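[INFO] parsing input record for MmcQ-like protein
[DEBUG] input buffer:
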Amino acid sequence: MNIEDIREYCLQQKGVEESFPFGPETLVFKVSGKIFLLMGLGGDPLQFNVKCDPDKALELRETYTAVQPGYHMNKKHWNTIIVDGTVSNKLLREWISDSYKLVAKIH
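[DEBUG] output buffer:
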């Protein structure tokens, strides 16, 4: 996935808004006024932060080297995902959807 793929996927979710509240280099996606994904536009490789259930967050970090504690975020609830080709696009979309659902309170 690239920046545009992630952007399009986020915007497909119900009620999503995009903005740049932290400056022109950080694209933010919100639902119900709450952030569910942040993505830096200048990084190589591409990285983004998503919210995650705390137990699952730890499990993902132990399983995938591309999953790190959330950069500049509450590390209990957020992961930074490095889009380096080691994780399938299907999993990336799943993690984005999980974050959206957690923030939107959809179960």
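[INFO] Residues 89-104 form the longest helix (16 residues).
[INFO] shutting down worker
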